[in-house]
Structure of Amidohydrolase:
Amino acid sequence: MSTRLVLHSARLLDPGTGGPLAASALAVGADGRISALGDDREVRALAGPGTTVVDLKGAVVTPGLVDGHTHPVTGAELTGGLDLSPCADLDAVREALAAEVRGLARGAWLFGWGLDPNVFGDLPVGVAPFDAVLDGVPAFLLLFDAHSALASRRALELAGVDGPRTFAQASAEVVCDADGRPTGLLLEDGACELVERVAPQPTRAERLEGLAAALDAMAAAGLTGGHVMDANGDSLDLYAELDAAGRLPLRLRVAPWCQPGTDADGVRELVELQRRGGALWRVAGVKLFMDGTIDNGTAWLERPDRHGESTHAFWPDPAAYTGIIGALHRAGVPTATHAIGDAAVRHVLDAVEKARATGGDPAVRHRVEHIETVPDDTLRRFAELDVIASMQPTHCCDFTRADHTDNWSRRLGEERAGRAWRCRDLVDSGATVVLGSDWPIAPFPPLGVLGGAVHRRPTRDLTQPPHGPEQALTPLEALRGLTTGAARAAGEEHLAGRLAVGHRADLTVLAADPLTVPATELPDVPVLLTAVDGRLTHRAAEL
């Protein structure tokens, strides 16, 4: 077999064996699999005329880093607007909006994203603080959780939204004041879409190029794959077009949504959709929601939050959700369910337990996404049911505070805020933990995710104390969350996530060892090379 790639003079780090390998070089065959591991001399001897040979000069090779929860198409579109995530208070938001308004053409829309509800302090979240700045300007400002948004008065007028509405999603709401007038706050997709559908949209060509640029940036940041948690609109066609043109730099595993109201025909369509895919992408699983978010009061908690909210499931009839999990399980389709609150997580685990009891392939693995607060008796059930725990440590870093003065913690109260992102407890209970960013909710660079899982400090100010340091992972455990954990979550542990002969040559090359670099310095470690199937998707100038 011919050799596609040789990497030599390297330090090889395999999280499956727990650390460095004795080998200093690897070769990749024409099939895109690792064909040899050994010393420089013997592996370089495998190179032929068409082999790409790279001297890594002592750099560290890990299995390709995989983002366990990402939204590339949505992220590429949303992050084209005004980034409000650096704004720490209302004055900063007003200043940023005012600067953007000054550059707008008359009648043009203003789009913003990443707005932190903590900027409102004790004020209700609404558009009123920005009325003077946005007077006459149609604006749509997505809050950081992407489950809620603020619409300006003009945007609401253009959308014909002048009072409360009823939605199939139990948590969706056009928030109104005591007189029935919209405050500008829109909760969940059903409400947000009322305004989004009247806003101008980019062309398909613009969307395709924006997606390609975002994926290239991900590859340059060290990612070789992603578990994509939506297939909205024509996103599958966009992936297929990039793949056919050889422009897809990541291996993507896509889970389309299943929303409340989906009937038996809808479930069959989702099962049929599992056949779609290409060389580097495929539909593999279904994404569901069991609740919304704690910050906007739409999570599902076993006890109400301190505002009396977060008391309902996303599905008006949770039993219908349970039935669909059973149907998908029997069809051999893995599921990933957004479940943030303790009641939501418990219901998902109950549903999976019932599904497994009715038959189907026991090898089908289901997932719970986010798991932001859960009680002790929930932890052991992940391992018992072989349910993957999919978590985003940078959410804990950047959206909560160690002193519990943030919106998330205040809503939950001390006891439940003390159960924030229990990564350590889940790993210790035997669960498979996969880590991700949930981009565009948080930045996608995987070294930031790795570092956050270890230090749990605000990335804007790493001198601040960590939130729940007892839940920190070790560097090796964090690395596994983006390599071996991601592979197991995909049911591909036999061919991915490790540096082993016969495994896929999806590789990330770093300038320093992620197991020994201080966690707070990890995001600054240069990514020198990434490869998918042994084909280079990013190569730094110095190599």
Observations:
- The chain has a mean pLDDT of 96.
- The domain at 73-196 is CATH 3.10.310.70 (Diaminopimelate Epimerase; Chain A, domain 1).
- The first helix runs from residue 40 to 44.
- Residues 301 and 343 are 5 Å apart (CA to CA).
